[in-house]
Amino acid sequence: MPENTRRRRMAAMRGCDRVLSGNPPATMRELLARMEAAGDSDALPDFYDGGPVTALEERVAGLLGTEAAVFFPTGTMAQQVALRYGADRTGNPTVALHPLGHQELHERSAYSWVSGLRGVRPTTAPRNPTAGEIRALAEPVGTVVVELPLRDAGFVLPTWDELTAVAAACRDIGARLHLDGARIWESAPYLGHSFTEIAGLADSTYVSFYKTLNGISGAALTGSRDLASYARVWRHRYGGQVFQQWPAALAAMAGLDGELPRVPEYVRHARTVAAALAGLPGARVFPEPPHTHQFRLWLPHPAQALDEAALALAEEDKIWFAGGWRDTEVPGVAMAEVTVAGPGLEWTAADVAEVGARLIDRAGRHRP
């Protein structure tokens, strides 16, 4: 996305009185205020470690019920270290992961290019692999990756029984199970189990602090003490041993305090929003109902027309609906991801239907 388009969208969103999808971007002053509220601003910061970073690691390990957690500046780095650990401990550099997974599409296959590992595909279906597919792998693997939810398949989750079966299958073939849990926070309601129970199925779990919790950056890799010791060494080798990371750590703590308790409510309301959107002329949502507070929406207009209509609605009527539309393989049909967060809780089904109709009307007028 061009930078000027991104900035125009963020400015339009921030100027809106009502927001359906996502959160208006916060100013740096607002972010600083959240950080100050999340910790003792008179305490010393971290110096390569300690301070709020250590406090955050301990809190996340407690939330997920793991022996330890290690803070990373990026999830890409954390996941590389998790997969490298699996290769070193099992002696097998082969990783089973989905072609729609974050490691392939959004990390530019760093596990292969940087860490020298090799990927195999347990499935190409738009969902996470099943236990049967894990057992049917044609060759041994050191680690199996499951992404919760699989974002680029439409934020889809396995059921709890399917996930526990996958964990058992990994044990049966002698492979580690790594959970890409960047969005684990919103996965728990659908799975019907606690973070501790979910992470307890895996050998390692990565979590993000900015995707749902509205932090400014950062991630954590959780698991055994041995994994944590290994992760700290490789974090340094990958260039992630940053002198001070207290702003990211405090922003993450603020998200755990303020956003995490509200996530189940976001997930529940996403089903109301999705049902209302599905009733718009020519619309389709997936999954139906959503598995998390995020889902996909298709409308029968080109992406450019919908983006222009959304910006016009925001700038003229001060209402943000949804942006980031992408054209699909079906001519004249575009798709956007919808995220129901705090501002979206104010919308009733009738609100969604009424504003959705206005967006579609505008898109028809903007259609090239």
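[next item in queue]
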Amino acid sequence: MIDKSKKQISEKHQRILDAAIEMFAEKGYASTSTSEIAKKAEVAEGTIFRHYKTKKDLLLSIVSPTIATFIAPHFTKAFSKEVLQGDYASYEEFLRTFAYNRYEFLKQNLPIIKIFVQEVAFHEEFQKPYVKLFKKEILPYFKKMILHFQEKGELKQLPPETIMRFTVTTIAGTILTKQFIAKELDFEKELDEAILFLMGGLKQ
């Protein structure tokens, strides 16, 4: 649910947002019509268009605040401080902290994150702020972490950006598979196997 404290809105408007989040997450943006959203929200379809010119405006109103309120302070600055600026005995220890931190974040914000993941590839508006924040808040600390373990002789002398890509795709793939594709999987077991696989390729 969108937090009413962020912006005072009417009960009907709130129902529209809640219905849109639920249906976009369940069916996808392209497969959801404004008439379906209106029916679920128990409002006339015209009520939606009094607040939003188009269905895409409605989508942006849901995801754009997420970028501003979650991606900026939590996904980047807080994540950087909580995870990337930590002191780890090994790269493997860092991987576990990284994985569990993102796994909990995803569970807590699942509907909106699901919409973001589904739609980010198709809407440039979602990509630009995300990429900008990543380059500013995540990339420098992630690179510093990798260089640290390369200097210790734990990681291969590959370009840090390459190790970063391998790390993110492996960990993110494990988390997303558990959350969206095979919910019956034992996350701890899958993560152990993913880390074993990753470290097998990255260790010096």
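[queue empty]
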